[in-house]
Structure formats: structure tokens, C-alpha cells
Amino acid sequence: MSTRAGFVALIGEPNAGKSTLLNRMVGAKVSIVTHKVQTTRARIRGVAMEGDSQIVFVDTPGLFQPRRRLDRAMVAAAWGGASDADVIVLLIEAHRGVTEGVERILEGLADVGQGRRVALAINKIDRVEAPRLLALVQKMNERFTFAETFMISAERGHGCDDLRRWLAAEVPEGPWLYPEDQIADLPMRMIAAEMTREKLTLRLHQELPYQMTVETENWEERKDGSARIDQVIYVMRDGHKGIVLGHKGETIKAVSKASREELTEFLGRRVHLFLQVKVRPGWLEEKERYSEMGLEFRDGDG
Q1: Nearest of 234, 244, 220, 241 to residue 288 by alpha carbon
Q2: What mean pLDDT is predicted for residues 137-148?
Q3: 12 annotated as a binding-site residue
Q4: Can you list the domains of the chain with their CATH numbers?
Q5: 251 is in an annotated binding site
Q6: Is residue 13 marked as binding?
Q7: Does 59 show up as a binding residue in the annotation?
Q8: Quick one: average pLDDT of 228-235?
Q9: Nearest-angstrom CA–CA distance, 74 and 233
């Protein structure tokens, strides 16, 4: 039997459920999931196996109206991920329907979707009644010629198996791109940083998460099989540092504990995690920070 392998880009507005769907497809927590919008900064790839097919998911940052350099770099990464893919899946939210953001994505798809199979996945279907859902399917398919339409709940798993089977048949014939047991091509250092950033994002609900980044500065394999991981949390100003540390260091301790526990489970061994908070007023304009996030600094120009 011949094998198949290819790249599938998940695109959509922030919070449409792309990261949740990626994690559901791959069967492991690769892309961070939070209630905050715009949390996926880099093109995180998760690898899913379905029969003799290997599906490599490119989870792109949400497509939105960019305002700052970081925003522009994220949107460029999203469209870049779509234009590099063999198949594109547009994810929209059933209860929100055709928003302004979806309209803009449809305009972009007219160009990027040329010569590619594009599927529509309507997510969070449990939030609307059937007649409204069918009207949305009709409206979207009038706007763009989708190869297939799926109604899913990424959170609950409804319809996800059908989508994965369809994608498995759509990716091109060819050898697998990754070893069968490899679930993500992101370096472990970045996955570790993303886990800590997720915990910070969940604890700090205001604007701060967008003005903060986490980097894994050092990773040391120890003789007893455990790993020592040193991470730096960069914030924009002194006031932010106090917020991240919390009263008597309570916030940073809670974040460190939650992140260490998740890393221990993910790696299947003991982890010693050490967090530092540093103030770097201009980190949003530093090329190195973008490289750490897997983004192109120059994509933020304009």
C-alpha cells in the first residue's frame, strides 16, 4: 500500500478553535489553548496519523486586523502557512457566522486558495439550532467553492474523525515526512516556553499577556534522567514585573508549579523549572524575540 503525507493549514479568526482542533487531531497538547485571543504566535505543526496517511497540521495565528509589528508578523505567518499547505481548512464559529473577519479571510482565500483543496469546518455546532446551521453552510458555500463542509465540535470531538479521514485521503501520495512517533516539529524548548506562557495568560486576564513573552534560556539533561529548564519571562515595564510576580511571589510560584507539572507529564520525567522575570521595554521591536517565537521580524514591517 502506498503512503500519503502532506501539510494542512488551519486558518480562521482568533478564538475560532484552531488550537483545540489541532490538539484533538494530534491527540496531544501541542498548541496552547487559552480563552485569550491571538495566543498562537508561531506556525506550530502537529503530526497526526490516519491509516497510511501522515497529516502535518500547520496551526496558524488567528487572522485579524493587525495594528502593531507583532500583529503584522503573526498575520503574515498565518497566510504564509496557508500558501505553503497542500490542503487548507477554514474554521469558523457556528454562533458567530459570517463576521467581518470571516469576510476578510474569504477575500484572501480567493487568492491563496487557488489550485488548493479548501475545506470549511463549522465549529461549536452545539451552540446553534439546525436551521441556522444549514443557512450558514449555504451562505458560506455561495461565497467560496469549498471542496467539503464539515460540522464539528473541536472541544467535544463531534465530526473530527470524519474531517481527519477526509484529510488523510486528500494529502498527496508520498513518503512520510516525520518519524511515526514524532508529534510536533517545534523544538522542545519552544513547546516548554509556550506551556509557561499559557499558564501566565490564564492567570493574568488584562492586556499584559500581549506585552509579554517567554523564552527557554537553558535546558540541561541530568544524569538521573530529569531535566533542568531555565526560562525568562520578558515584560515591557517595571509595573508588569510586579504583576507577574504577584503578592509575595504568589503568582509566579503558581505559574511555575502548573507549568512544571504539565511539562513533567508531557515529557514523562521529572522537571526542575526555574523562572525569572526581566524588564525589556523594547522587546516587541527586537528581532531575536521574533526568531524565538518562530516568526519573521521583517513580516512585521509595513
Answers
A1: 234
A2: 95
A3: yes
A4: 4-170 (3.40.50.300), 188-300 (3.30.300.20)
A5: no
A6: yes
A7: yes
A8: 93
A9: 20
